[in-house]
Design goal:
2 copies of one chain form a homodimer. By secondary structure, chain A is α/β, with parallel strands linked by helices. Chain A has 8 helices and 11 strands. Helix content of chain A is 41%, strand content 19%.
Chain lengths: 205, 205
């Protein structure tokens, strides 16, 4: 029997569901419903039920979802029931903020190295790290088997650094540079650009 | 004749098109095609043509798009042919990085104030600003007619601060706190949470 791949847009909603469930759990809650989740997230209850049903049966009609169980299942589906090592490239404001941010390791991602090409930054401490020389990126990252990178360099250098990341074996790039990146098949990129979000909202102002 | 509203997901792609066009313009380019844009962005040429056609006729069959003209039109549609004043709430790592980031003002958004509730931060300089006391937020922001805010406070305080922003007349909130916010009708929220992007990609690893 052929298995249909889950649409990418559905996969993209799972981390949102997981985050809401984890918050409910912190609030001491044990059970929720697609209605309640939908109200918290501004997503219809029907959409949430449909999304989750693609991965299995997580709730019983009338009794709702067990929060801890559903969160565990989503963590497993998203492969964050383990911890992924992550490198940061770019020790500017954003890269430094992320290197110090505890919220990553609590949710499946542990920063293990930060790189820059600026001689005045290389060797300097940022949070628990010392900035490494980007010239050594491939030889440091490849043998460590690291698959995830956060890119926080200027737009002008982003493609060149991305090529280096791909060479080093990176398969997932979270890109803060405001530029679209070209990557070979099998490598994923997600973009964080505050201005695109602001412009999306200003349309409605 | 009834005018159909443009789907939100289409509006969300316009800033991506605009960003690519502005980069092409910086590269000295004058004309592009939906094919070329699509290759840069990983979006099909047909999708781009369909999206743009919802707003008018921007190119001629066979001659492509004039980059400067299309960028101007998109800026006008997204209402970033003007500059929006923006406040930042939260003078931690992320708020400070954004207060110093020039990339906002170049693309339609000018930070004009930054607020925090921490006495050790209030009055301190960050980039060209001095941190203001959040207790004065409503009385500072409301008379200035500011409509856009960037929220960079801890998750625990995000809803409370959002209520304050709404009271102050803010209509668009870019939220960096990893929590879903409740806002009244007419107020928009967009979310930036690096972990949801990382988890989206780890699914495929």
């Amino acid at each position: 029997m052929a298995v249909k791949p889950i649409p990418n847009i559905v996969v993209g909603r799972l981390p949102i569901y997981l985050r809401a469930l984890q918050r409910m759990s912190q609030e001491g809650r044990r059970v929720t419903s697609s209605q309640e989740l939908g109200e918290r997230l501004g997503i219809s209850a029907a959409q949430i039920r449909k999304d989750l049903s693609q991965f299995g049966e997580f709730g019983k009609q009338g009794t709702g979802y067990n929060i801890e169980y559903l969160a565990d299942q989503l963590q497993s589906i998203l492969k964050v029931d383990r911890v992924w090592n992550v490198i940061i490239v770019g020790a500017g404001d954003i890269g430094s903020a992320l290197a110090r941010y505890n919220g990553l390791s609590e949710r499946g991602f542990r920063v293990v190295m930060i790189f820059d090409n600026d001689p005045s930054k290389i060797g300097q401490p940022i949070g628990p790290f010392h900035v490494k020389n980007i010239a050594n990126l491939v030889e440091e990252v490849q043998p460590a088997g690291i698959k995830v990178a956060i890119l926080a360099v200027p737009a002008q250098q982003a493609q060149e650094v991305t090529d280096l990341l791909v060479e080093a074996g990176i398969r997932a790039v979270l890109n803060y540079a405001p530029i679209s990146l070209a990557v070979p098949e099998g490598v994923r990129v997600q973009y964080i650009d505050p201005v695109t979000h602001l412009q999306h909202m200003s349309y409605y102002l």
